[in-house]
Every structure is written in C-alpha cells, then in structure tokens.
Amino acid sequence: MELEATMKTEKKTGTTRLTITVPFEELKTYRNKALSIHAKEGDVPGFRKGKAPMPRVAAHFGNDVINEFALRLMACEAAEQAIEEKKADAAGKVHIDLPEIKEGKPVKFTASFTKAEGEAGEAEFPWPRVGHLEADDEEKPYGRPPMYLRR
For the chain, what is the total number of helices (H) and then of strands (E)? Predict the structure, then answer.
C-alpha cells in the first residue's frame, strides 16, 4: 500500500503518534474488499452465506457500514505497515482516529500507541468486524484480525 507517515513522540506521556496519509484510490480498493467480506461472512436474509449478490449485500448493510468497514480495515493495515516501516516498537492498544472522507482527497488519520519498553510487545489493532457497527470505539475488540481478514 502506498502511504506517507510521520512519527512524533511525546516525552511526558510516552505516547507515539503516527500521522498517516493514504491516497483516495486505496479506499476504493478497500471498499471492494469490504463488500466481498460482507458477502462471504455476513448474514443477508434470503441467501446462504457467500451467495448473496453484491448489490443486495450493499443494500442490506448500507453504504455507511460498508464505507466504515473499508476505512477501518485500510486504517489498521496502513497503521500496521507504518509502524513496521518506522520501526516504532508499538505495544498494547493502537488507537486510530478516523477522519471524515472527502471524495478525491487523500485520507489522513492518526494512530496513537505506547512504545514497548524492554521486551518487544505486540501492537493490538481495532480490526473491523462484519455487520452493523453500533459499539463505541472503546468497546470494539482489539488484537488479532478476525479469521476472515487473515486468509
């Protein structure tokens, strides 16, 4: 994935903030991924799992849910890549601030985390889950991506 990232660490709190910019075209690719994941893993009334046509999947879940899933998936993957490229040694939960999307404009967001002290820790990302997203960001599960994202 093509991205630009800048890293800044606050010495008082020990929090590191990555500002990541991704071209808008990448989001279109992730929207298609989000639709296919929802088609395979989501429950669409009247269809077996994985058998619903894409327009029906989009209509059932709605554009907002699909777009948010695509944005979260892209943000998690971009943050993971930026942390690796910058050799940031992230540990614990990675908090991602998602932006408002403007058509044709690059997507710019921030990822905040603490650096690992001593032994290298493992970063935990707020991977998106299939379905209607109603929980607050604090309630969303952190850690490894679900099986449908690891294939």
Answer: 4, 5
Paired with 7 in beta bridges are 18
What's this model's pTM, rounded to 2 decimal places? 0.86
Specify the CATH number for 4-150; select among 3.30.70.1050, 2.60.120.590, 3.40.190.10, 3.90.1150.10. 3.30.70.1050
Bridge partners, residue 109, by sequence: 20
Opening angle at CA 105, ends 124 and 113, nearest 5: 20
User: Computed over its alpha carbons, how large is the radius of gyration of the chain?
Assistant: 16
132-135's contacts with Cβ under 8 Å and 24+ in sequence apart are 132/61, 132/65, 133/65, 133/68, 133/69
pLDDT digits 0-9 by tens, 10-64: 888 888 999 999 999 999 999 999 999 999 988 899 998 889 999 999 999 998 9
Q: Amino acid identity, residue 13?
A: T
**Buried b or exposed e, range 137-150, using 16+ CB within 10 angstroms:** eeeeeeeebeeebe
